[in-house]
Design brief:
Elements: H1 2-23, H2 27-35, H3 39-66, H4 73-88, H5 96-106, H6 111-143, H7 150-175, H8 177-193, H9 200-223, H10 225-253, H11 263-276, H12 288-297, H13 303-338
Helix pairs in contact: 2-13, 3-4, 3-6, 3-10, 3-13, 4-5, 4-13, 5-6, 6-7, 6-9, 6-10, 6-11, 7-9, 7-11, 8-9, 10-11, 10-13, 11-12, 12-13
């Protein structure tokens, strides 16, 4: 809980700094743009985001059901909203997966199976993220949506490499049983020689069992190709709707849609922004995400429209789900204490 409070304070400070940066040059014009917004389109943008999470939840549900566990859609959706809170307050979104494992275990799923479920879903999600990134890069290459900016090109390339390496690393961990056993054996031997652990054989046996569980889960995925395809498609739809959301935000703020704004351009821009955000070591990738939004969306919208759309987009896609997830987490915690 201390870390939660500490991270929340850091997040508030970062948010305050980002707000100053966004508002400082054009405050009154931004306020005027927000006042004249078509709130119906903002509602559509919010619905777009929360409908996207439906498909993310379905992907989880498919994998959990594959392990013959009963898990309702409501449980999966609530788990993902709580995940948004923990991802939002931790660097590199590192707090979400451990919380998912904890919640699955609490709902009666064995720890190793829960870990397998999270890893397998994350592998498929990363595959969808990388595929979307490739599609965005190809689209930009042929349509020349963005002007050539060396810094942005390097940042997107780094983000794309990071996401790809994460996916490859997870595939190796899950599928290469022999490699994992070798690493565990050598790693524990080294730690034992350094006197950092005791009972070397016992530790090796324990970790061998865990590695076998991971491998068993990966083999299950390999045998159930339709499960992989379905969950991959669910994640692609989730990402597509998430990436499309700024389009509705721009519609809400502009009296008429700017000539250069199309759903395809918005989806490509969003994909680039979030690829870039993959390596920003700050909760919510704050600062990096805003910089990316300015640079990519700034190719076809400018001034107060660009800044106001950033504020609403970040509120809907980051702060709102994090607030909802935090409330659900507190309700869950209080119910657990009462029991």
């Amino acid at each position: 809980m201390k870390n939660l409070k500490k991270n929340s304070i850091i997040l508030l400070l970062i948010t305050f700094i980002v707000l100053i940066f966004v508002l400082k040059d054009d405050f009154f014009s931004i306020v005027e743009t927000l006042k004249n917004a078509n709130y119906l389109w903002i509602v559509v943008a919010i619905l777009c985001y929360f409908i996207a999470i439906i498909f993310e939840a379905r992907a989880y549900q498919e994998i959990i059901h594959g392990y013959r566990y009963h898990y309702t859609f409501k449980q999966a959706y609530k788990m993902l909203l709580i995940t948004k809170f923990f991802n939002g307050i931790t660097p590199f979104s590192s707090g979400g997966q451990p919380m998912q494992v904890y919640m699955l275990k609490k709902d009666g799923i064995r720890l190793t199976k829960a870990t397998n479920i999270i890893i397998q879903n994350f592998i498929i999600y990363q595959a969808a993220l990388v595929v979307f990134g490739i599609l965005a890069i190809i689209t930009n290459h042929y349509l020349e949506i963005f002007t050539e900016v060396t810094l942005l090109k390097h940042l997107v390339t780094i983000g794309f490499i990071v996401n790809t390496l994460v996916m490859i690393g997870l595939i190796i961990i899950s599928f290469s049983n022999r490699f994992n056993h070798f690493i565990i054996r050598k790693g524990i031997s080294i730690l034992s020689k350094l006197k950092l652990i005791k009972n070397k054989e016992e530790k090796q046996a324990k970790w061998r069992e865990k590695v076998d569980d991971f491998h068993e889960g990966a083999e299950y995925l390999k045998k159930n190709k339709w499960l992989c395809i379905r969950t991959f498609l669910y994640n692609m739809i989730y990402l597509g709707l998430t990436y499309l959301m700024p389009y509705f935000v721009i519609l809400a703020l502009a009296n008429h849609i700017p000539s250069g704004v199309t759903p395809l351009k918005v989806i490509c821009s969003s994909a680039y922004v979030l690829i870039m955000g993959a390596f920003v070591p700050i909760p919510g990738a704050s600062g990096g995400i805003e910089f990316g939004y300015f640079k990519f969306f700034g190719n076809f919208i400018t001034g107060s429209l660009l800044r106001a759309s950033l504020l609403i987009w970040r509120t809907i896609s980051y702060y709102l789900p994090m607030i909802v997830g935090g409330i659900l987490f507190n309700i869950n915690t209080k119910r657990g204490e009462e029991k």
